[in-house]
Amino acid sequence: MRPSSFPYHSIQFSTSSCIEMNRLSIIVVLGLLALGCAQLSLRQPECDSPEAEEAALVAQDYLNGQHTHGYKYALNRIEDIKIISKPDADDVYVVEVDLLETDCHVLDPTPVANCTVRPKALTGIEGDCDVVLKRVGGVLTVTAFKCKTEESTEDLCLGCPILLPLNDTKALDLVHASLATFNNITVNTTYSLLEVGRMSTQIVSGGPRYLAEYVIAEANCTNDVCAPLNDVMANRGICTAKGLGTAHAVDCKMFSVMVPPQDANSTYVFPTRHVHTQNVTRKHGLRHHKLTSLHNPHITGLLSAETASESSEVVSVATPALLNATESVASTPAADTSSASVSAEVPVVVVKRDVPAAPATVTDPVLLIPRCPGRVRFFS
Question: What pTM did the predictor assign?
Answer without folding.
Answer: 0.72
